Amino acid sequence: MEPLNLPSFAYKVKQVNGKPSIFDIIRRKFVSLTPEEWVRQHFIHLLITHYGYPKSLFAVETGLKYNALAKRTDIVILSGDSLPFLLVECKAPFVPINETVLAQIGRYNFTLKPRFLAVTNGLNHYCFHIVNGEIHYLDDFPRYREHNP
């Protein structure tokens, strides 16, 4: 897998049914090591180790309904009151962060209404929140303790 613009971590990789797999500390199992999963696992570790998010508040690859269509979110972090706090859309490093990706997370925002949204392809990362239909980009990701006392 290619190097990312994210801190490295002590990952566990092994072959499962002849395919490379990486251990997901949230789902507590080995999952197929795709380029998108490589980004997701790095981002999970970033949020835990650098931003203080408790593992117990993560939901990874959970379903949601949007206009009767079944969709899957990459990472949702819940607040202490179990409401969506941060929604993260992960893409493979070769997928550019463009209008299509922003529209995708915007659709998920419509359903989940988290306080913050983020998109990453492991090389470029953006975090923002939407207030009265306006996107407000942040310089950094929110730290858990600053927004969940």
UniProtKB/TrEMBL annotation:
Type I restriction enzyme R protein N-terminal domain mapped to chain residues: 35-142
Any one Pfam family match given in the protein's UniProt record, by short name: HSDR_N_2
Entry protein name: Type I restriction enzyme HsdR N-terminal domain-containing protein
